[in-house]
Amino acid sequence: MLDMRQKIKIFKALGNETRFLIFKNVFTGGYTCSLDKKDPNVKVSPHATCVSTIAEHFDFSLPTISKHLKELREANIVTMEKKGNKIYIEPNIETVRELGGCFTTLVENFEKNRELFFGDVTVS
């Protein structure tokens, strides 16, 4: 379960436009990564992308993209794994799912509290 410190770390990581775009595209499959041609036996998830592919979409150096990815990894919303000569990135679905659940709970509590204090009022 995400504690308050972990949630704040996630929001701080996603509060940067570049990190948000990287995460969004990693999460939605917006980047496709070529397979490691030096080692064709490397097994890679179809949901994974690699650092070099992400870097191609930004006007930043590879070390800058790596710093952004480190922030996302430390916030535990992406995972990174070296396979062959590439580093592959995937969204951490469990963390994202749990964070989504937090928002669902907030909305449900908001609606319950409005109903408790203001009667049968619907929020659209």
Observed structural traits:
single chain, 3-stranded antiparallel beta sheet, mainly alpha, 124 residues
Walk me through the structure.
This protein is mostly helical and 124 residues long. Helix content is 54%, strand content 11%. The chain has five helices and three strands. The protein has helices spanning 4-14, 17-28, 51-55, 62-74, 93-118, and strands at 49-50, 78-83, 86-91. Strands 1-3-2 form a three-stranded antiparallel beta sheet. α1 (4-14) packs antiparallel against α4 (62-74). The longest helix is centred in the last third of the chain and has 26 residues, at 93-118. The radius of gyration is 18 Å and the shape is elongated. The two termini are 29 Å apart. The mean pLDDT is 84.
Task: Give the topology.
Layout: H1 4-14, H2 17-28, E1 49-50, H3 51-55, H4 62-74, E2 78-83, E3 86-91, H5 93-118
Antiparallel strand pairs: 1-3, 2-3
**What portion of the residues fall into strands of 2 or more residues?**
5-15%
Mean pLDDT: 84
DSSP strand tally: 3
Name the helicity range. 40-55%
Q: Structural class, judged by helices and strands?
A: mainly alpha
Main sheet specs: 3 strands, antiparallel
| Morphology call | elongated
Kindly, what is the distance between the CA atoms of the first and last residues, rounded to a whole number of angstroms?
A: 29 Å
Give the number of helices: 5
> Low-confidence parts, pLDDT < 50 over ≥5 residues?
none
Rg result: 18 Å
What is the string of helix and strand elements? HHEHHEEH
- Biggest sheet strand order reads 1-3-2
Task: Give a brief outline of the structure.
The chain has helices at 4-14, 17-28, 51-55, 62-74, 93-118, and strands at residues 49-50, 78-83, 86-91. With 124 residues, it is mostly helical.
